[in-house]
Amino acid sequence: MDSRYDIPRRAAGGGGGSANSSPALGAQSRRRKMPPRPADFKLQIIIIGSRGVGKTSIMERFTDDTFCEACKSTVGVDFKIKTVELRGKKIRLQIWDTAGQERFNSITSAYYRGAKGIVLVYDITKQETFDDLPKWMKMIDKYASEEAELLLVGNKLDCETDRIISRQQGERFSSRISGMRFCEASAKDNFNVDEIFLKLVDDILSKMPLEVPNTEFSNSVLSLQPEPEVPPELPPPRMRCC
Ligand SMILES: Nc1nc2c(ncn2[C@@H]2O[C@H](COP(=O)(O)OP(=O)(O)OP(=O)(O)O)[C@@H](O)[C@H]2O)c(=O)[nH]1
Predict the structure, then answer these.
(1) Most exposed of 45, 53, 108, 231 (fewest Cβ within 10 Å)?
(2) From the CB of 74, is ligand 1 less than 6 Å away?
(3) Which residues, 6+ apart, have CB-to-CB distance to 186 below 8 Å?
(4) pTM given for the model
(5) Predicted ipTM?
């Protein structure tokens, strides 16, 4: 099996900084509260795929560690922010969650161009969501940057008994597309969700000059300057209710 597709489950436990319990130090740090270090880069990632495959669930699991059993469909686009640290850099991720319904394509397509990473999701229990993949690839070809990193995700891995699309089918599809990674995940069980984003960001960073700010990146997708949350030329996102 190609190791490119092997995104291991994150290690359990860990996390949480060590607590220095010295009272003197505690009082001192309370007095001199340091502002958080600003992000080194800002990066946009877009999540696409057919209706109901779990795009919002993947985003919300990653950003808020929540899962909604009965969510309403996304209308247009929504986004969330999460800051991660990788390769010694602090990266502010702007994650765009798009509506899977075709009638929103004219809105969602406007968000492809600025994305440095694209997560294309299908549902391993729904044949039609896998059959739709070529249609989504056409959208990528038409609207996204050629340099965007691509990751195919077979979601709802917790529903193994209802599986219709085998892992091999997913792997085969991704292997036909240059540079596209593949993994299976479960937003419900929080399996491989962090890995989706961290792997994608790591791939993006690996192709970037990290020490010398690149003006092309600084002016568009990645910026050392504060930027408005919504690209000015785009319509504001339509918020979903849950
Ligand atoms: N069992 C299971 N259900 C999931 C998983 N991810 C999402 N769901 C469910 O699938 C349904 C659709 O999830 P959403 O996250 O709203 O899907 P979406 O792709 O954003 O849908 P649209 O906004 O309509 O395009 C919801 O009922 C979720 O609870 C998963 O990993 N496992």
Answers:
(1) 231
(2) yes
(3) 155, 156, 157, 158, 192, 193
(4) 0.79
(5) 0.99
